[in-house]
């Protein structure tokens, strides 16, 4: 089994009649002023292709990690049926980002990472607030 594509976005939608994907607000970096923060909604998409010897249905895991330390995991059921490719779309509501770092969603099958999407979370400097001096009025 191998990765065909991976992406992370705010919203990923599959058109019910055409089976085409629409991807909104791709996440390639997140800038946050304070931590921890719960991201209201994040979607992860993996497209995978099976080899001839791979079974039609495979159990795996979706993992979420920061700087290679796993923070969360969810079951992943990959069902190819008779097709060579399959899509997995995950919608996660309220994902907690504990602090800055390099974050990764990964699809793991039989202990091996077969697909991933990585993005940095950065903490920009807070803008400096200075009081303005008003000119004396006569």
Describe this protein with a few key phrases:
138 residues, mainly beta, Immunoglobulin-like, five-stranded mixed beta sheet, four-stranded antiparallel beta sheet, elongated
Report on the architecture of this protein:
With 138 residues, the chain is mainly beta. Helices cover 0% and strands 64% of the residues. The protein has no helices and nine strands. The chain has a five-stranded mixed sheet, with no helix packed on it. The protein has a four-stranded antiparallel sheet with strand order 2-1-4-7, with no helix packed on it. β1 and β2 (21-26) form a beta hairpin. The termini are far apart. The model has no long low-confidence stretch (mean pLDDT 94).
Q: Would you spell out the secondary-structure blueprint of this structure?
A:
Elements: E1 2-14, E2 21-26, E3 30-31, E4 37-49, E5 57-66, E6 69-79, E7 85-97, E8 101-109, E9 112-122
Parallel strand pairs: 3-9
Antiparallel strand pairs: 1-2, 1-4, 4-7, 5-6, 5-8, 8-9
Short description:
This protein is mainly beta and 138 residues long.
Mean model confidence by pLDDT: 94
How many strands?
9
C-alpha termini separation: 79 Å
- Low-confidence parts lasting 5 or more residues at pLDDT below 50? none
CATH topology: Immunoglobulin-like
Which class best fits the helix and strand makeup? mainly beta
Largest sheet: 5 strands, mixed
By CATH, the architecture is named Sandwich
Cα-atom radius of gyration: 20 Å
Total of domains: 1
- Biggest sheet strand order reads 3-9-8-5-6
Number of helices: 0
Quaternary assembly: single chain
CATH homologous superfamily designation? Macroglobulin (MG2) domain
| Highest-level CATH class | Mainly Beta
């Amino acid at each position: 089994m191998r990765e065909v594509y991976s992406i992370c976005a705010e919203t990923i939608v599959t058109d019910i009649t055409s089976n085409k994907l629409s991807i909104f607000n791709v996440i390639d970096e997140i800038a946050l002023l304070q931590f921890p923060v719960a991201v209201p909604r994040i979607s992860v998409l993996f497209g995978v292709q099976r080899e001839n010897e791979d079974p039609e249905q495979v159990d795996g895991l979706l993992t979420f990690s920061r700087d290679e330390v796993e923070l969360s995991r969810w079951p992943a059921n990959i069902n190819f049926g008779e097709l060579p490719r399959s899509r997995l779309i995950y919608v996660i509501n309220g994902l907690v980002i504990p602090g800055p770092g390099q974050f990764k969603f990964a699809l793991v099958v039989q202990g091996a990472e077969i697909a991933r999407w990585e993005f940095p979370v950065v903490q920009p400097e807070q803008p400096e607030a200075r009081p303005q001096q008003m000119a004396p009025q006569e």
